[in-house]
Amino acid sequence: MFPGPKCSGCMAAISLWGIIFMAIVGGLFWNHSVGLIDDLPGETDNDILECYKRHAANDPDKDIDGLHCWAERAKKIEKLYEQNAKNCWIASGAFVVVFIFSVIKFRISIS
Question: Could you report the per-residue pLDDT of 9-39, keeping only the tens digit for each?
Fold first, then answer.
């Protein structure tokens, strides 16, 4: 029913690696690392088109150059980076719980 010392030790090692990895990735997301932009939830073409339509409806005589929509998209991207950072840190916290559980089971099984 309970994991043995080998399984508990393996779980502890993998959990320790997960804590370190997810904390580092969370920090990279928090710092808006350009290399991780592909890991953000994507925008659909409809999101971009709705932005252009919204600005065109506000001022139909003005030619839309995309700068207004880019400012909105940049704010959205910043929020997505911060949300992914928080998600990574939550996952790191879950790895801490698994690490503590596996270390306790490891100590119980070797004694």
Answer: 999 999 999 999 999 999 999 999 999 988 8
Q: What is d(CA 54, CA 52) in angstroms, rounded to the nearest whole number?
A: 5
Sign of the Cα pseudo-torsion (67, 69, 72, 75, in order) = negative
Amino acid making up residue 6: K
b/e per residue 68-87 (b: at least 16 CB within 10 A): bbeeeeeeeeeebbeebbee
Domain ranges of the chain: 5-110
Radius of gyration of the chain (CA): 22
